[in-house]
Design brief:
The chain is an alpha+beta fold and 416 residues long. The protein has two domains: 246 residues, Rossmann fold (3-Layer(aba) Sandwich); 148 residues, abc- transporter (atp binding component) like domain (Coagulation Factor XIII, Chain A, domain 1), CATH 2.70.50.60. Strands 11, 13, 14, 15, 17, 18 and 19 form a seven-stranded mixed sheet that branches. A six-stranded mixed sheet has the order 5-6-7-3-8-9, with helices on both faces.
């Protein structure tokens, strides 16, 4: 039996909302006493338990996934494991060096070049200079940023940041690799490379990987164990199929593709989806090879800049389509506060059956919302086309209609 690389027992993290320091000793002491009573009895109105009594073990060579909606406590858990912040109570036992990839540019100094940051990260992990040199060419080749390796990383795009950061973390051989949702920023080809590398470091090198993702297709392909968090509470831990089943039960939406539970803590979220021109019970049904237009509704309360929309289509066996508004010459776009519609035009040369959908809106490298509707796309059994399971490369066009509170409805903008 392999040893446990991570052991977590009754892990809890309490955040104090509002002002922490009042400027007077008596008020600070009163605040401390109130927080102490809240910990021992029940939650105060100004206290937020980001995590509460979470326990699990991760063995050597495991790929351990963490899933849950926005605000579930996933990122807090990773920060506690990475020793960025301390727990309010509970214990964490780690056996080995840790490399963390929690957000774009983690561990990089913006004024240093890519080359210098590789050596800096290696030194932080406790590696000798000769060890880093031996891995250097492999890191640069994997990242695909060889042309810019002597350029300060502050001039890198978010995608280049992620490529180099992941390459460094995966190749400098930490015993434990911790990855947040940052890989959502990379392109589809690089995501496949990352998944292959994660499997390699786990299966062939005995490294332990802990990752957060909303994409259950990726989770099923990568992980052998899973933790489900909801509002800081551990809802399930165990095998992937068992935990994903419980997660999807919680995520059930109302009829006709509309979102049942809208996130209350987000600045933007998807509302519904349908096929254009399809009404009533058929608005999520199409035919093979028929030109199809997907319509996705989105609402945001703040200005979102440098946005990208990702649209995934999948079945139980394979990710069928991974499309982005940045593909085919597309550009970043901005969203004023208000209600908007996104559209994808595509031909679908796929056989009959049901296909799941996943939507992600990314702004300035940060994932704003990821939504997987329970209502699936249905392709009717007509003009059936055989298709080998693979990522499709098919023509499509993306457009956006914006209706902000400040301005009238914009005309359609097509990115071809």
């Amino acid at each position: 039996m392999s040893q446990n690389m991570i052991e977590v027992r009754n892990l809890s993290k309490l955040y104090k909302l509002g002002v922490i320091g009042t400027g007077t000793l008596s008020h600070d002491l009163n605040g401390w006493w109130k927080r102490k009573k809240s910990e021992d009895e029940n939650d105060g109105d100004e206290d937020l338990w980001s995590l509460k009594d979470v326990s699990f073990d991760v063995g050597q060579g495991d790929i351990f996934g963490v899933i849950g909606r926005n605000g579930a406590g996933k990122s807090t858990l990773l920060k506690l494991l990475s020793k960025i912040t301390k727990p309010t109570r509970g214990t964490i036992k780690l056996n080995g060096r840790i490399a963390s990839l929690l957000e774009v540019g983690t561990g990089f100094h913006p004024d240093l070049t890519g080359r210098e940051n590789i050596f800096l990260n290696g030194a932080i992990l406790g590696m000798k200079k000769i060890e880093i040199k031996n891995k250097f060419d492999e890191i640069v080749d994997f990242s695909g940023v060889e042309r810019f390796i002597d350029t300060p990383v502050k001039r890198y795009s978010s995608g280049m940041y992620v490529r180099l950061a992941f390459a460094v973390a995966a190749h400098l051989e930490p015993e434990i690799l911790i990855i947040d949702e940052v890989l959502a920023v990379g392109d589809a080809e690089f995501q496949q490379k990352c998944m292959g590398k994660i499997k390699d470091v786990s299966l062939n090198r005995g490294r332990t990987v802990l990752c957060v993702s909303h994409n259950t297709v990726v989770i099923k392909q990568l992980c052998n164990k899973l933790l489900f968090l909801e509002k800081g509470i551990q809802k399930a831990v165990g095998t992937v199929d068992e935990v994903i089943g419980k997660y999807q039960e919680k995520e059930k939406d109302t009829d006709l593709g509309r979102r049942g539970n809208v996130p209350s803590d987000g600045v933007g979220y998807f509302v519904d989806w349908k096929l254009k021109g399809h009404e009533g019970s058929d608005q999520h049904t199409s035919l093979p090879r028929k030109k199809t237009e997907f319509i996705f509704s989105f609402t945001n309360t703040q200005l979102l800049a440098h946005c990208e929309l990702r649209f995934l289509l999948f079945n139980e066996a394979v990710m069928v389509l991974n499309a982005s508004s940045m593909d085919n010459g597309g550009v970043n776009f901005s969203l004023l506060p208000g209600h908007h519609q996104f559209g994808f035009h595509a031909d679908l040369p796929i056989s009959h059956g049901q296909y799941g959908i996943e939507l992600a809106l990314i702004s300035s490298g940060t994932v704003i919302d990821i939504w997987r509707p329970t209502t699936k796309l249905t392709i009717l059994n007509n003009f059936e086309v055989q298709m080998d399971g693979a990522l499709l490369n098919i023509p499509f066009k993306f457009y956006i209609q914006q209706k902000s509170r400040q301005e009238p409805l914009h005309s359609e903008a097509l990115f071809k």
